[in-house]
Amino acid sequence: MKMACCSCFGAITSRCYSCRKRQRYRRKRKPSKCERVWFVFLIFTFLVALVNSFYLFSVSNDSNEFNLYVWKTFEVWFPLYIIVLSVACVLFGYVALLLLFGIISVCLHQHLCMHVIHKVLICFVFVYHVAILTLFTFLDPVLWILASRYFQFSGPFLHLIAVVFVTIVTWFVAAGLGVLCSRGVTIRDMTLVYLLLLIGLYITPIFIKSPCIMDYSDTPDKPLIFAHKGAEMLAPENTDIAFRIALDDYKAHGIESDVRISRDGVPYVMHDNNLRRTTNVKDIFPKRYMESADNFTIDELKSLNAGSWFMTRDPFLTAGMLSSEQKDHYRSQKIPTMQEMIRMALKRNRTLLFDIRPPPSGHPFMESWLNVTLNTIRDEGIADQDLEFWKAPNGPHYVVFIKVFDKRKIQNVHHSIPFKYISSNATMNISTNVWNVKEKWLFSLFWCVGTSSVTTSACHTLQQLDSPSWQLSHQHYLIMWILFDVASLVWVVVLFIIQISRRHQSATVKSDRYNYTDFITLEEMTSNTASTTVNSAHMDAVSKKQTSTSTQSGLERESNHVL
Predict the structure, then answer these.
(1) How many CA atoms lie within 13 A of 445 on its CB side?
(2) Which residue of 62, 259, 286, 504 has the fewest CB atoms within a 10 Å radius of its CB?
(3) Which H or E run contains 354?
(4) What is the pLDDT of residue 233?
(5) What are the backbone angles phi and psi of residue 317, rounded to the nearest 5°?
(6) Alpha carbons within 13 A on the beta-carbon side of 359
(7) Cis peptide, bond prior to residue 535, ω within 30 of zero
(8) Exposed e or buried b per residue across 478-510, where buried means at least 16 C-beta atoms within 10 angstroms of its C-beta
């Protein structure tokens, strides 16, 4: 039964790894140096694909930035991130499966001979993953901070997965060391090195500092949520319907947006410095669609459609869930003024946080754009003590915080900010608002750190969370860590004892049997003996026949003589 299973596995792995039927060899052949190099390259490609897949999953929070980059470069809306991630996952699965077949082939002592198609595909996988890592790093090096944050969040569970994986792999490692032991190779040093590596893995949690490991009584309050451009994942950004969905349906604490000033001095809500992405300006003003948005008057801006693009491109894959009436309503959206946004928020007792962006050179309000905007805010009944504004550290624009219903003193920072900065602000009674946080894991991380509020494009998902995605007390995590490590260590020792003892017994049994060469020699000797016996019998028969014939002829002659 065991031999049948090994034969079946051998046939499967041989077909999958080398794409041909398993060959039976008279002698076990060692893989060539070239095939060993290809196997090592396969392992290296697997590690690169693993790192890249982890990186792509960790930067999902900023996935829309890649799509915007494609738009700004080619003016074509292309879901770059989803396609890149999907291809990366498929290629990673392929390399992982091929590596598994290769490891099984090695364990079954089969001859490694990777098919040329696999070699070409492995090179493609390697180049693809390296190119994606290089491209994304070039576009935004700060994304590696997101990767480190994701590792902080998932580190405790990645450690447990690594312990389970290494414990399983120990069966094959112990088998290989058992083979070396049966051949008379000293394995004490190699075993010691492997056990030291295991111990290093076991103590890794000492260096894992996750904010989500804290006592349950120390859990901070849930961060308040500012809807970025309204509910921009569910409706056209910076429109009346996006603001209403965020404030009415998902009870966002406030709105975070961007304000510009029109050519006739009216502040309006718009993120981009042009109108091509979110309006039909190319259809209405075909000769002016390349101009800055601030070069249009408020009447011209109001004549544009600001909702049809969302239904056509479906940037967040949510438009398909809308009813026909909702689709018609979304298509009729217009660009709102800043006054309309302020009135909507104050009517609902909500807060506003927005950037005031300067107009281009040559604009009529190039010198007075900030004062005109602030005076327009004051005209809506906002007192100076309820109005804060400051120069943004990352650009020429200003940040405005209308705090009629929110008396905090806040600072607006990017999600790449160090955690210690948030804690330092808290000691000075300064609240930190982090933007733009979309993923639940990142929101949970900032929740555990103690962030007071976040700006998010996904208010519909984050508002539903009642607690961080995961949280463990120090005592519970310590118990889980020790139990996993002790169970793994015991199992590893047992596997080493079983495998090495089995190999030793197998070597003892084989020493009492004929090896393959002796069997061939014995078979040749038996064959030669048999042929010699046959030839001897044939010669005896011939001699007997000749003797009989000669005897008969002699009797005949004697008979004739008597007659």
Answers:
(1) 26
(2) 286
(3) strand 351-356
(4) 94
(5) 55, 40
(6) 28
(7) no
(8) eeebeebbeebbeebeebbeebbeebeeeeeee
Entry pTM: 0.83
Helix (H) or strand (E) holding 356: strand 351-356
d(CA 158, CA 166): 12
**Cα–Cα–Cα angle for 9, 12, 13, nearest 5°?**
85
Q: What three-state secondary structure class fits 513?
A: coil
Q: How far is CA 46 from the centre of its chain?
A: 13
Q: Which of 379, 81, 68 minimizes the C-alpha distance to 237?
A: 68
Distance CA 408, CA 430 (A): 7
Q: Are 290 and 274 in contact (CB under 8 A)?
A: yes
Helix-helix angle 369-379:338-347, to 10 degrees: 30
pLDDT at 26: 41
Q: Which of 113, 111, 90, 107 is nearest to 42 (CA)?
A: 113
Question: Which is it for strands 431-435 and 410-414: parallel, antiparallel or unpaired?
Answer: parallel
Q: How many whole angstroms separate alpha carbon 37 and alpha carbon 279?
A: 56
What is the number of other CB atoms lying within 10 angstroms of the CB of residue 289? 15
Q: How far apart are CA 482 and CA 472, in angstroms?
A: 15
Amino acid 546 reads Q
C-alpha to C-alpha distance for 235 and 224, rounded to whole angstroms: 21
Contacts of 229 by beta carbon, 8 Å cutoff, 6+ apart:
237, 238, 242, 256, 257, 258, 271, 457
User: How far apart are the C-alpha atoms of 246 and 536, rounded to whole Å?
Assistant: 105
* Composition of the chain by helix, strand, coil, percent to 5: 60, 10, 30
Under-50 pLDDT residues of the chain: 2-3, 22-28, 513-517, 519-520, 522-523, 534, 542, 551, 555, 558-563
Backbone angles phi, psi at 402, to 5 degrees: -95, 110
Two structure tokens written together for 535: 């030839």
Residues in Cβ contact with 414 at an 8 Å cutoff, skipping those fewer than 6 apart: 142, 394, 434, 435
Say how many residues make up the chain.
563
Helix (H, G, I), strand (E, B) or coil at 215: coil
| Structure confidence at residue 395 (pLDDT) | 83
